[in-house]
Task: inverse folding
């Protein structure tokens, strides 16, 4: 039975803005945080079960030092609702922010996300991002940028990434031996692996490979391995059998991908698809860094790939959780 005074006395505001109704509230009196669970959890198209949602609520409401991920809006960026659910389940706050509404990116933000913008970033936007990552020269802030091959040219953002040693490629990445399609999927997949000494040791050892959309994935180049205080590292890459070429149409169908074969004019792989640039300082022996992670596919953030509705593993979800931790 709904008891309004129980919630109001604890500062809990029940969300009524959604088409779904709140059926359960997980609340921790020590932190005074709450997590609301909606009746949509019982829908056929919901990929996260009630038990996992309750567990996620317990993690979120009891965890100390909640970090905040801010998803940038205002430039036609892609929204990431499933990513938001996953991060909430793992004890992160996720907010959407429009850079034009702030003189500076709020201090409570730990990680900034840019997902496939369709409009260009201004010099003022770049200045705010740079100040955020600098953090008054204390560092400790992070930016993740996801961009498909057919994304618009974004000159100021791209130039800023180059200062950190990162550059998006302009050719589509293919791999005949590591591409596949399934009967109920409308697009073919490109299979990726992890750099051996990167963050994903457990996933690599378990052969839990990643998949992204074939035709839209592109390389993220390291312009240098180390320069000044910045170092670059490959996190996710193709297999050695990959190749790249220019294509005019990035919409490769599940029925035609097998016709794409390597030719003598194609560039040979492997290619880094997710590359990290780290700017570091030290306090004694403690290393503190601000990081930019550039990803040559927005599939890493896409609901379809994160939920892995057509498979049995949620490798994309697991890799994103490891990444933000």
Result:
């Amino acid at each position: 039975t709904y008891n309004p005074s129980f919630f109001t006395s604890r500062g809990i505001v029940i969300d009524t803005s959604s088409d779904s109704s709140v059926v359960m509230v997980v609340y921790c009196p020590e932190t005074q945080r709450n997590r609301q669970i909606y009746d949509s959890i019982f829908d056929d198209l919901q990929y996260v079960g009630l038990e996992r949602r309750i567990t996620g609520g317990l993690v979120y409401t009891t965890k100390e030092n909640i970090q905040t991920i801010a998803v940038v809006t205002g430039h036609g960026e892609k929204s990431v609702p499933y990513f938001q659910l996953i991060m909430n389940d793992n004890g992160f706050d996720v907010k959407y922010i429009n850079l034009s509404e702030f003189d500076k990116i709020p201090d409570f933000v730990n990680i900034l996300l840019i997902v496939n913008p369709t409009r260009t970033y201004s010099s003022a936007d770049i200045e705010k991002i740079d100040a955020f990552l600098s953090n008054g020269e204390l560092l400790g802030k992070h930016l993740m940028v996801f961009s498909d091959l057919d994304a618009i040219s974004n000159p100021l953002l791209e130039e800023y990434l180059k200062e950190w040693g990162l550059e998006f490629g302009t050719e589509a990445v293919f791999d005949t031996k590591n591409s596949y399609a399934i009967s109920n999927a409308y697009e073919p997949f490109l299979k990726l692996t992890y750099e051996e000494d990167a963050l994903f040791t457990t996933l690599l050892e378990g052969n839990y490979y990643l998949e992204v959309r074939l035709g839209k994935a592109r390389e993220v180049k390291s312009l240098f391995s180390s320069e000044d205080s910045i170092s670059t590292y490959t996190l996710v890459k193709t297999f050695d059998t990959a190749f790249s070429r220019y294509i005019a149409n990035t919409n490769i169908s599940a029925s035609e991908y097998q016709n794409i074969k390597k030719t003598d004019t194609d560039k040979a792989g492997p290619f880094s698809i997710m590359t990290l640039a780290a700017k570091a300082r030290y306090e004694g022996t403690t290393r503190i860094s601000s990081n930019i992670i550039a990803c040559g596919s927005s599939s890493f953030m896409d609901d379809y790939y994160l939920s892995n509705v057509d498979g049995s593993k949620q490798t994309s979800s697991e890799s994103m959780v490891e990444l933000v931790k």
Remarks:
- Helices lie at 4-8, 50-62, 81-89, 123-134, 155-163, 201-205, 303-307, 315-324.
- The longest strand covers residues 272-283.
- The first helix runs from residue 4 to 8.
